[in-house]
């Protein structure tokens, strides 16, 4: 609905493509393909409620001297409202995001040497991402404390435990892209982070 309203007002017009067709993606708010095919927690978050995520990034993530991920998730919880379920979701999302980043930075380089390995990596990380999103976001819809805890107890907090184990075992190894980005970035910069390459890119191109 938000995209339709923006485009109806003309705000989404982004010029013409190479074939002369109008583009209406200037301020679009979600990328359906990247959401459904996200192979990382970050990719899912970056493509859902895009304009709000961009605002959170500019006002919090880019300006926080440290604990950027945690502070940004907490601000997002405050922005959504006062229901406890929001805080269950976003507080759980902090270690999930950090664990996903640790796994990616420690292992991804071993799977991008061939198309077959990369495809296998994308499939596995896609499955794990869907589980992570479902597990993390359930309290967002329950809203209250009791059903959220009941759900997590019924699952024995398995994802919380797995995330803690990952964070304890894996070293905090920043990616090369992140190192290059921050070496060029001023403390108050509000430019976008380097975009994570889309998984299943060959499938995406065929779909178009």
TrEMBL record:
Its main location: endoplasmic reticulum. One of its GO terms (molecular function) is acyltransferase activity. It comes from the Eukaryota. It is found in: Endoplasmic reticulum membrane. Pfam families: MBOAT. GO terms for cellular component: endoplasmic reticulum membrane. The chain crosses the membrane at residues 85-103, 123-143, 155-172. InterPro entries: LPLAT_7/PORCN-like (IPR049941), MBOAT_fam (IPR004299). GO terms for biological process: lipid modification. Keywords: Acyltransferase, Endoplasmic reticulum, Membrane, Transferase, Transmembrane, Transmembrane helix. It is a multi-pass membrane protein. PANTHER family: LYSOPHOSPHOLIPID ACYLTRANSFERASE 1 (PTHR13906:SF6), PORCUPINE (PTHR13906). This is Lysophospholipid acyltransferase 1.
């Amino acid at each position: 609905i938000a995209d339709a309203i923006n485009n109806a007002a003309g705000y989404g017009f982004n010029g013409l493509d190479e074939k002369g067709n109008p583009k209406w993606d200037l301020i679009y708010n979600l990328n359906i393909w990247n959401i459904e095919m996200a192979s990382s927690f970050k990719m899912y978050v970056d493509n859902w409620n895009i304009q709000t995520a961009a605002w959170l990034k500019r006002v919090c993530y880019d300006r926080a001297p440290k604990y950027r991920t945690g502070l940004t998730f907490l601000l997002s919880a405050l922005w959504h409202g006062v229901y406890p379920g929001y805080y269950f979701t976003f507080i759980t999302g902090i270690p999930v995001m950090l664990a996903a980043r640790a796994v990616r930075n420690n292992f991804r380089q071993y799977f991008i040497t061939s198309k077959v390995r990369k495809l296998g990596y994308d499939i596995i990380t896609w499955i794990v991402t869907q589980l992570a999103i479902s597990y993390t976001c359930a309290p967002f819809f329950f809203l209250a404390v009791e059903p959220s805890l009941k759900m997590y107890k019924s699952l024995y907090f398995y994802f919380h435990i797995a995330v803690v184990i990952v964070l304890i075992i894996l070293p905090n190894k920043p990616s090369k892209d992140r190192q290059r980005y921050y070496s060029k970035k001023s403390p108050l910069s509000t430019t976008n982070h380097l975009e994570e390459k889309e998984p299943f890119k060959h499938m995406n191109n065929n779909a178009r």
